[in-house]
From TrEMBL:
Cellular component terms per the entry's GO annotation: membrane
Entries under InterPro entries matching the protein: AAA+_ATPase (IPR003593), ABC_transporter-like_ATP-bd (IPR003439), ABC_transporter-like_CS (IPR017871), P-loop_NTPase (IPR027417), PstB-like (IPR005670)
Record-level GO BP terms: phosphate ion transmembrane transport
Ranges where the ABC transporter domain occurs: 5-247
Protein name: Phosphate ABC transporter, ATP-binding protein
Molecular function, one GO term: ATP binding
Keyword tags: ATP-binding, Nucleotide-binding, Phosphate transport, Transport
């Protein structure tokens, strides 16, 4: 399988704190890769580096390469706005724009590309909401406020907003950890469907979730990549003892 994203000697410092240490790894296209590891091991920091979110943090220093296809997203000529359109992000807590309707939330990011006509916007809203299996639940109240949706519906709305701009990669930072078990299941089913079109990288604390949704798993500890590979192998016969101890619950 083709690699969509490749990290080469990625290092992230926050001031004197060396949070991510010389990480090199690949993320195959149209697959789900889970990033696991104990709290503070650098999972979110790696994820955020993949759409240049650390640009907004003055103390952050990122070195090494992150290739998106063949382009280094940290190259001097690379445009962060274009990168964030190609690499979308879904956060732990659903974060719809509170003053906006369901409809306007879905189309908000897409509108930044320039003016669009009503028919085009309607089409994008409908197809994005259908893709996240939310259309039937909201089609009669598209002009209603997004905050009136349940937490699980809000998270699916945020995923619809992310895919409306037609990204190639979707980063998810514990996307179901604030949700109830049924909403979590829906998000997991959705991830399974979305990988047909997108490359998905998900940070999760939930080991069962990593095992259920991902094709590949990467285990991090103290800012280092300890081991990565096919999820089946990582969860049954990992090469490193640290990985085995973590997935069997002996630490972390
Ligand atoms: N914006 C920031 N400013 C300063 N330090 C940060 C920032 N973000 C992360 N760090 C530091 O980087 C290290 C890794 O944090 P990170 O959030 O990536 O860990 P994590 O594995 O995702 O943890 P958790 O599972 O608890 O979310 C920690 O020492 C953290 O304090």
């Amino acid at each position: 399988m083709q690699n969509k994203v490749k990290l080469e000697q990625l290092n992230v410092h926050f001031g004197a704190n060396h949070a991510v240490k010389s990480v090199s790894m690949e993320f195959p296209e149209n697959s789900v890769t889970a990033i696991i590891g104990p709290s503070g091991c650098g999972k979110s920091t790696v994820l955020r580096a993949i759409n240049r979110m650390h640009d907004l943090v003055p103390s952050a220093q990122v070195t090494g390469k992150i290739l998106l296809d063949d382009t280094d997203i940290y190259d001097k000529g690379a445009d962060p706005v274009t990168i964030r359109r190609r690499v979308g992000m879904v956060f732990q807590k659903p974060n719809p724009f509170p003053a906006m309707s369901i409809y306007d939330n879905v189309i908000a990011g897409y509108k930044l590309n320039g003016r669009i006509n009503r028919a085009e916007a309607d089409g994008i809203v409908e197809s994005s909401l259908k893709r996240v299996a939310l259309w039937d639940e909201v089609k009669d109240r598209l002009r209603g406020n997004a905050m009136e949706l349940s937490g699980g519906q809000q998270q699916r709305l945020c995923i619809a907003r992310t895919i409306a701009v037609k990204p190639e990669v979707i980063l998810m930072d514990e996307p179901a950890s604030a949700l109830d078990p049924i909403s979590t299941l829906k998000i997991e089913e959705l991830i399974e469907e979305l990988k047909e079109k997108y490359t998905i990288i998900i940070v999760t604390h939930n080991m069962q979730q990593a095992a259920r949704v991902s094709d590949y798993t990467a285990f991090f500890y103290l800012g280092e990549l300890v081991e990565d590979g096919e999820t089946r192998k990582i969860f049954t016969t990992p090469d490193k003892k640290q990985t085995e101890d973590y997935i069997t619950g002996r630490f972390g």
